[in-house]
Amino acid sequence: MGDVTLTVIGCGDAMGTGGRNNTCYLIDDDFGRFTIDFGASSLVALNALSIVPDTIDAIYLTHLHGDHFGGLPSLLMMREYQSDAVLKLTIAGPPGLEKRIIGLCEAMFPGMWKQDWTFPLDIVEILPGAPVELLDRLVLTHPVTHYAGPEPSTALRIETNGTIIGYSGDTGWNDVLFDIAKGTDIFLCDCFDRHDKPFEGHLSYDALLRHAHLLETDRLVITHLGPEMCNTSEEFEIEQAHDGLVIQLTSGEGD
Fold first, then answer.
1. Measured between alpha carbons, how far is 211 from 245 in angstroms, rounded to an integer?
2. In what order do the strands lie in the sheet with 246-248?
3. Main-chain dihedrals φ then ψ at residue 230, nearest 5 degrees
4. CA–centroid distance for 67 within its chain
5. What is the distance between the alpha carbons of residues 232 and 194, in angstroms, rounded to a whole number?
């Protein structure tokens, strides 16, 4: 078992509540460096932390909302025009990913999409429910309760270096989270609202408390906090993510 380090680049909602960046988790393992999601502000956030984006070999996406994949055009342009990157970049996500990435790039920067980039680029569409090995990491996704267009929103589970990372993605309560969280070293979980709301696309803290004791994870961390969760002096029982948090998953504690 090797060391695995998770750095929270961004854990905010789509509106940047509390000044937090859009979703992006950076993981260093024995095989390289990857992110889970790459929201619109992710490149700015990486640069602010002096993390060289060229060193990322893979991006695993949960769903195709702007705060989870909207930073890709800027990243691709940076690697194409401002860097000497030769490291292959793999972008993996739900079915329909390639069409949506091309559409996003063309909407933001017309004419930017290339068939032949100056660096190797591979786009992989992951079928939910079917484990796949990508770059020596075992990846499993399951559909969750969150509308993002015709492409499914998914929860994500990645095994690397003997460590298991689970992430709910954006979702209301869905029993599939039990399977995603089971046996994980860390489970990152959406918790947008403080109290239950009629909208089913995000979890509330109340809902999570009702199920937390059944989530078989070593470390439960809530993320994607909305205004009710950020703008309160209430102390919560469950650990909260924050931008810049560094967690050593195989040796030592988080900072």
1. 25
2. 121-125, 89-93, 58-60, 32-36, 24-29, 5-10, 246-248
3. -80, -40
4. 10
5. 10
Give pLDDT < 70 ranges for the chain. 1, 251-255
For residue 186, the model assigns a pLDDT of: 98
Both tokens of residue 147? 């509308």
Burial readout 86-107 (b: 16 or more C-beta within 10 A, e: otherwise): eeebbbbbbeebeebbeebbee
What pLDDT, on the 0 to 100 scale, is given for residue 191? Answer: 97
Amino acid at site 119? F
What pTM does this model have? 0.95
Q: Class for domain 5-248, per CATH?
A: alpha beta
- CA atoms 70, 59, 12, 195: torsion sign: positive
Alpha-carbon span 11 to 37, nearest angstrom: 10
Rounded-to-integer distance, Cα 8 and Cα 247, Å: 8
Q: Where are the alpha helices (DSSP H) in the chain?
A: 42-48, 66-69, 72-81, 97-108, 176-181, 205-211, 227-230
The three-state secondary structure class of 242 is: coil
pLDDT for res 253: 46
Number of Cβ atoms within 10 Å of the Cβ of 233: 4
- At residue 205's C-alpha, the angle toward residues 199 and 209, to 5°, is 120
Which amino acid type is present at position 238?
I
CA distance 92 to 227: 30
Q: What is the pLDDT of residues 49-84, one digit of tens each?
A: 999 999 999 999 999 999 999 999 999 999 999 988
Q: Which two tokens stand for residue 126?
A: 């992951």
Domain boundaries, the chain: 5-248
